[in-house]
Amino acid sequence: MKSRLFWIFAIIYSSLHHIGSGSTSTTLKRPRAGDPFDTFPKNFWQEFSSPFTDTPEDEELEVTETTTHEPFPFFADPYTTINISTQLSSNVYLHCRVNDLQGKTVSWMRRKGDDLTLITFGQHTYSSDSRYSLEFEEPNDWKLLIQFANERDEGPYECQVSSHPPLVLLVYLTIIVPHVEILDERGSATPEKYYKAGSTIELQCVISKIPHPSSYITWRHGVRLLNYDTSRGGISVKTDMLPGRALSRLYIANANRQDTGNYTCMLGNEITETVVVHVLNGEEPAAMQHANGTRFMSSPVTMVVFFIIFAIMKPFQR
């Protein structure tokens, strides 16, 4: 910058010098020896005509290249494998949440070994099983609904997005089959139970392995529902839903012969257990069993067997 100012002052000085000497000729003359212009660098006028800014010769303008990519679909859940458990005969949803779908299609497949069976494509269901259907929930959940799940529904399912490469979410469904048992008032399990007329019938239904109780427990005498029966009177049902299990008690007061029959405890429509109840008039259940034993011992075949044994053993008694 200082050097440029020096040359400017030199030009002004030279111009004033020529004017002062009275020279009016327009003929261009070669500068005299020692003229300040002789010492100017060859590229002076090029530099002089440029702006008075110090710009490094090697400085280059940086050009940043930017590229915009189309958003790629991705699953909202952080896992690529999800395990779901449901109770036998219940309805279950398999969730598939997809963000930035960008016009791609979501499908549900059922995998059996190396075979894949198409269930849904977009919002259309292609399965011949009417229990399967697709329900879309805003903003991004493509839910596969399975109604009345049974043991054949257990296994892996795949939610696929038609991107390149395709996205796959694996959902493994486990069907839990509850265990049902009917006990008497002493907590003993027996397929048959005897009660004296006029006594109270008390049965307990214990159901274990219930992940999510979705239906209540019902009692039936034959085909007659007892939970809300008011025609007979004296019937009471008390049910407790506990973590992972359920306990239901059936009480029938003043039992009579009409109360004899099959009693069934039900959770839903497929989870059942049955016990046979006998109501006796004028004799204890033990007496009936003893009488059955007496009749068995007094049968003709039994008498013949004992006679043969007695005949064989008699010589050895002498």
From TrEMBL:
Signal sequence bounds: 1-22
GO aspect biological process, one term: synapse organization
Keyword vocabulary terms for this entry: Membrane, Signal, Transmembrane, Transmembrane helix
One Pfam family here: V-set
Keyword Metal-binding part of the UniProt annotation: no
Transmembrane segments: 296-313
Domain Ig-like, chain residue ranges per copy: 78-163, 178-276
Keyword Signal: yes
Name under which the protein is recorded: Ig-like domain-containing protein
Lineage, top ranks: Eukaryota, Metazoa, Ecdysozoa, Arthropoda, Hexapoda
